[in-house]
Input
Amino acid sequence: MTNSPPAAVVPRSLLLLPFLLLSASFPGAFSFVVRMSPFSAPPLSAAAAAKSASALSSSSTSSTSIASSCAVVSDPPLTTAASGVLFDVDGTLADSWRLGYEATVTVLRNNDLGHADMNEDIYHSHCVYATPERLARHAGLIPGDDDFENAGMELGRQFDEHYVALVSRRTAGFYDGVEDILRNLPEDVKLGALTNACAAYGHAVLEANCPVKSSEGGEGAAAGDDADDEKEGAAGDDDATDAMFALYDRFGTVHGADTVPAPKPSSSGLLQCASELDLDPRTCVYVGDAPGDGRAARAAGMMSVGVLWGSNSEEKMRDAEAFDYLCRTVEELRMLLPQK
Output
């Protein structure tokens, strides 16, 4: 069964905004507006028209205010008009740092590297590196060492295998509010994801957070969930389940450091994603939680939005001078992206 997203619908209130504003100022003109309107909706009173126009104006003002407060460049781009939105995964969409930390500790111990200098702060500081380099550094190696590359690749392979197998909504669930952001992106806006973990991990996180349908056509659990999660995934009406199933399908490209020419901060991965979505990079916005995310976006010619709920401090993100906007809350991010 194909679950195609419904065609984009322009809210009637937006199309009627000029008429609503006119009626709010000149109540007597409203009956003329209704007669001339191509819509068959019941006539609104002048008071209701004024209230609707006021709400729309207030929403626009709020979006402008949030954009201004989040901007970190003097002339920030209009991200709400983006044709494509690309996301980092860990620390951006998914609250998964504990999973990454514990998987790292496990891999180091399995390789008799339990003595390696490792704690939560060190883990977070090393998240700027792609998995093989991060693991090699955790093992005490530095670039230039004879075993740095080979050790990193092997430790990274073990990490990916362990890490991906443990993904679920409990270990890598979306941050509160992220699902709503994804649901409310217009259907004509294309979505993608690029992580410095492996591509299989990116797919696993998206699948774990989006219920899938069983072969019998009923509602089932999301990939990687246990019995409790299955009950949760089965709850709700068919429309909600269809929407979430279609949500994963909307990601037209999902890549990791292992499926692009070079990991972030290289721009190659983002350029590959834009090409696969058939989009001009300049019309895309990339959302991430690390300085390398911003640098990759800048190098690719994309708009860049940094989030401050991941592994990096606001000071570190600002010092990178690589973002157009920095968001402290999910609500701020929502107001910076296209909305239905």
User: Anything to note?
Assistant: The two ends are 26 Å apart (CA to CA). Residues 136 and 150 are 9 Å apart (CA to CA). The chain is about 50% helix and 10% strand. The first strand starts at residue 84 and ends at 87.
